Task: structure prediction
Amino acid sequence: MNDLLNQISQSLVDGDPDATFSLTGQALSAGLEPLMIIREGLMPGMNIVGDFFAKGDYFLPDLIIAAEGMKRAMELLEPELSARQQVVESPGTVVMGTVKGDIHEIGKSLVATMLSANGFKVYDLGVDVPISSFIAKIKETQANLVGLSALLTTTMTVQREVIKTLVAEGLRDQVKVMVGGAPVTRGWAEEIGADGYAEDAMGAVALARRLVSIES
Ligand code: HCB
Result:
């Protein structure tokens, strides 16, 4: 089992999306849980790719091809994740997106999938989302939660801007804000006045549940 997970990780590092896809299929057929495949196969591979890029050993095309492998694996895993959840009633409405200037979508999409699979009504605005689009969607859907993803130190600051705009628009009492993304920390969430920070998609589900129940 561990060998299969290591091979998945290595296939991302090697930049071989076909192998990532087929190994992920094999792991599912072998009975591995989709979340385990993400946590112990795909994420370690993406982290290695990120570290190599940071050190200058890998370049942008290497990131792009690793992302392609991860996205193809997620095509297999997302339906499995959804199928495993037993939805009773909708705990809340979430507007989700990666902030303006940032096109990293994989983590944001994973959080959106897991929230949906856990009964939340999710409006996924995609990536590079202008602040005005978050505000408009929150107003339109009467959402009680917004999830802001940022993967770059340069775009984390947009999370703060969204919160400031929610206050200015008189929406801050209506909507809880959760933030996440690789450079985001609990300390940052506190500093910018977010309601919570989640390290991963399961953490985001637990946090979202907590934030919504505090509200009611
Ligand atoms: Co990108 N990139 N990248 N990248 N990239 C990172 C993020 C670096 C950390 C790599 C590095 O240097 N070590 C780095 C950022 C450094 C920094 O600012 N601190 C970086 C850089 C610098 C860049 C460019 C600037 C490179 C360049 O052009 N010179 C450029 C920026 C483009 C832009 O956005 N304007 C860029 C581009 C790319 C792509 C397009 C090639 C590609 C993304 C493709 C896509 O998404 N379709 C990419 C990728 C793949 C990465 C890495 C390798 C992986 C990101 C990823 O998908 N992780 C990443 C390195 C890394 O993160 N270790 C690297 C897997 C997902 C599942 O994890 O952390 O996104 P996640 O999400 C988690 C978690 O954070 C949390 O739950 C998720 C699920 O578990 N979460 C939330 C996320 N959002 C949440 C919101 C909530 O409300 C709650 C929880």
Observations:
- The CA atoms of residues 25 and 136 lie 39 Å apart.
- The first strand starts at residue 93 and ends at 98.
